[in-house]
Specification:
The chain has 242 residues and is of the alpha/beta class. The protein has a single domain, classed as 3-Layer(aba) Sandwich (Rossmann fold), CATH 3.40.50. 45% of the residues lie in helices and 15% in strands. It has nine helices and seven strands, in the order E-H-E-H-E-H-E-H-E-H-E-H-H-H-E-H. The protein has a seven-stranded parallel β-sheet with strand order 3-2-1-4-5-6-7, sandwiched between helices. Helix 3 packs parallel to helix 4 and helix 4 packs parallel to helix 5.
């Protein structure tokens, strides 16, 4: 029996790698899309060692023709997880137009390209999960990232309305502080300040996000669409940020 295919962008490391492992354990054949070929190969090998099924594709997801070619070469996807994203921690005054445009290209335009290509061939019961961020509620020193993740949430809701009649569900997961390379890239002072405002007092794990994605990507989750699931240890309850 052929396994349903799930595609995970940025699936070679951090949250994406945890999602790759979890969806493979759920019975999907996972297509790991990433720019880092060695890490992508490691992710595929890790899945295989655990008895799962995966393959890797190296692609710049902002390449429209490349995205179309990749999706067209695969069987119709049962699940698409738009996880890949970029982040730059800097004051608003230091942000450039080039930074802003690049962040939108990766964090917003690329998910649009992937979803457009996937939906064209996706059957009833298809699932799209976009990785947003708790930061879309507001945060300092992340103007381009915050704006882009707000756009991801709006995109999720709009797309859900477009495809609901076809039995395709579209949802977003909004992680809070998660122990990933992005978090570790913060200065020690910034990291300490972020953790001080975290109700749990500690960052979450990539697996926490993977569990949420697994739930939303499941064909059994059929009556939830256009929603944002916060996985942030309660951070969104207060809404404050540094």
């Amino acid at each position: 029996m052929t396994k349903p295919h799930a595609l995970v962008t940025g699936g070679a490391s951090g949250i994406g790698r945890a999602i790759t492992r979890r969806l493979a354990a759920d019975g999907f054949h996972v297509v790991v899309v990433d720019l880092n070929e060695p890490l992508a190969a490691e992710a595929v090998a890790e899945v295989a060692a655990a008895g799962g099924s995966a393959e890797s594709r190296i692609l710049d997801i902002t390449d429209e023709a490349g995205v179309e070619a990749l999706i067209g070469a695969l069987p119709p996807l049962a699940a698409l997880v738009n996880n890949a994203g970029i982040f730059k921690d800097q004051p608003f005054a230091a942000a450039s137009a080039a930074d802003f445009r690049r962040t939108y290209e990766v964090n917003v335009v690329a998910p649009f390209l992937l979803a457009r290509a996937a939906v064209a061939r996706m059957g009833e019961g298809g699932r799209i999960v976009n990785i947003a961020s708790r930061a879309y509620l507001g945060a300092k020193n992340q103007i381009d990232y915050v704006a882009s993740k707000g756009a991801v949430v709006s995109f999720t809701r709009a797309l859900a309305m477009e495809v609901i009649g076809r039995g395709i569900a579209v949802n977003a997961v909004a992680p809070g502080l998660i122990d990933t390379p992005i978090l570790r890239a913060l200065t020690p002072e910034r990291l300490k300040a972020q953790l001080a405002l975290q109700p749990t007092g500690a960052a979450g794990r990539p697996e926490d996000i993977a569990h949420a994605v697994s739930f939303l990507a499941s064909p059994a989750t059929c009556f939830i669409t256009g929603q944002v699931l916060f996985v942030d240890g309660g951070k969104s309850l207060g809404g404050s940020a540094v």
